[in-house]
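REQUEST FORM: STRUCTURE PREDICTION
Request ID: SP-0412
Submitted by: Lab K.M.
Chain count: 1
Length (residues): 324
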Amino acid sequence: MSHSLFPLRMQRLQRSTLAVPASNVTMIQKAAESAADVVFLDLEDAVAPPEKAQARKNAIAALNDIDWEAKGKTVSVRINGLDTQYMYRDVVDVMEQAGDRVHMLLIPKLGVVSDLYMVDAMVNQIEQACGLTRRVGLEALIETALGMANVEEIARYAATSDSRLEALHFGVADYAASMRARTVNIGGLNPAYPGDQWHASLSRMIIACRAYGLRALDGPFGDFADPDGYIAAAERAAALGFEGKWAIHPSQIEMANKVFSPPEAEVTRARRIIEELRKAEAEGKGAAALDGKMIDAASEKMAMNVLSLADAISARGGAAKAAE
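STATUS: Completed
RESULT:
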């Protein structure tokens, strides 16, 4: 094992991330009552330019008026891109007026480390100026060829500095456009490609995340009338190690939560692995057998991942019941 280890920077349950246009107050209210682990109030792509200012006001009001934590939710705000005239006001207004209520800001189309540094520095200064005690986290979307080309550098910077970056999301739609991919399908399989055309990119991003302690999230699946396609895409991401996926429609929340939750049988087996290894340890053995299969220290690490997730899901369920 290398002496250079980067533990997870921030643990958050994020099986489902519900995208909600901040221009729609009714949708925001419904999102607060949903089963999503994380809700992000969108000021970017889901909001038309004439509605940007009002959407920002709606997001701030929702942050202040809704007790998201009591509902067992993490709440994020997707700001506009650094190449727009809206970004600076998004950061300033949200942080100055609701910086003690928002958990994270989601940065779209992150391309280079300096993009991250800019938002990081703005949030730092506003927190200091306003005397805010909550440390707001940052998430970033890798959704351009430039961002993917620099994903390792971005993740490494976050791990080796005082950066607020917690997670990276794969934004498949803008990424497809950036790559000039022959598809108009958001997140689905292209029958012209032998397999999953995003597999290499997903793999590259999650390696960077796991190497440097960031959460890894899969992005949207556009056809919300195709539940089987959504589940298949979520299962592919889960198999790679992603911990959650976006829901762009409420019907996708339950599917994401189910796919990214360990089945009860898996949790039970994880507990048995730990029990058998403890018995073996007491006998001076480094390995053991369970159901005819060898288990060892690597098995323990995998089992602990399952149990940690199961405990987080249980805790969220308890918080939600307490709020009822």
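NOTES: The chain has twelve helices and ten strands.
Reviewed by: T.R.
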